[in-house]
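From the pipeline queue, job 12 of 40. The input is one protein chain; the requested action is below.

Action: predict structure.
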Amino acid sequence: MQLNREVEVLFEPERVVLIGSSKIREKVGMSSPQLFENVVYNMKRYFKGEVYVVDVHGEKGFASIEEVPAEPQLAVIMLPPEESIVQAEKSAGKGVKALVMITGGYKEAQRQRLLTLKSEYNVRILGPNTIMGVINTENGLNTTFERDLMPRKGGIAVISQSGGVGACLLDWACYYRLGLSKFAFMGDKIDIDDVDLLQYLDHDRKTRVICLYMEGIKNGKRFVEAAQQIVRRKPILVLKGGVTAEAARRALSHTASIAGSDEVFNAALKKAGIIRVETLEELMNSAVALEKQPPLKGERIAVVSNVGGPAIIAADALAREGLKLAPLTPETQKTIERLYPGVDATNPIDMIADARAERYKRVLDMVLADPNVDGVMVINMLKSCFFEPEDAKAIAETAEKYPEKPVVDVPAGGEDFELIHKVLGETNIPLYNIPEKAAKALKTLREYGKILEKLEKNGKPINREDEFKLKR
């Protein structure tokens, strides 16, 4: 699939012009001096390229884009609809290649004027109603209006049709320090749509997992064909809003979406090789697993724990997700029980509450080396146990020796999770605060494994240089 260079400028401009007003405040709408000031603040703080500010009232920068001394590639427009269109026309005449239309409330005639502008000048348009525009963590491009809101660099890209849902996911990523590559708030999609962004992200070396929040698809065939190519290299996760009839009607008025029936949507995703999730939390949890760990090549999971009850809960959760407890070889069981008398090495393995780093390291090493094991869920509680946060390093160190077998970790609870997260949060070990979430993450890894297996079986070999690989 060829790189979509028309959309590339949306994320990788060298020069950006920000157009707003230090005075206009809509009675109902997003246009306001505060929004304008905050976008200017974020761009000047984070963006590595050149930033020009056009205040249509001439108080905080250039009075018009005609005064800007250079030719910006990207314009971010933060005005009411009619004023935004006027500035979009001036931007196109200046040579701008892409427009980010932050505000909403456009009437159909105004949308058509924007589309006419696109055809006349070959300018690409994101929005309108994007609310917060785009983020590129690599070059610091950040058109959001929440001051100092910048996620850390990573391999997860997020495309959200909804500003509110996107803001929730962005806040989630920042709070848990998840690594993002790109973020795009699509809004009404009168021009740039999911497929345009997917085609760009397909070639983006910083992106390893793509997350989509959608309320509808306008060109299902084009979407499926693009996704079929991309999933050979990068997994795609989708959360869809507007599943119920009532929600679908609301989605139509919200972002002018064509929602379609949920059955048709499911069939399209299955054909495309896209993994569907049901909740915002599952979207992010699954993305973290796919970014940090390899696809799961089988259903056999070992549970290695320092407590018995949560290990049993984990076994139940794995079964509900269609996964199986791995039958450890007799050699593995005998070796563990010989080294640690009193430990029953039947899977799930309860290493007893006094297990520290050394025991975790040796047992996890033997379990990952077992040919009957496809992946591992580790449980390491602090309360009621001797385990200390620094002991968790042994989990990441041991997992590095087995790059083909995924490992997820469950420091169950609240405070225990926070303490372990400080140690392992920026490693390649995904962390979950309850076994059920870890089981769903493993299920997602298995789903992607099956997608890759199906592609190879159907004579579409994965390009091993581009394939989604674990980089520990």
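Job complete. Confidence is low (pLDDT under 50) at residues 254-258, 464-472.
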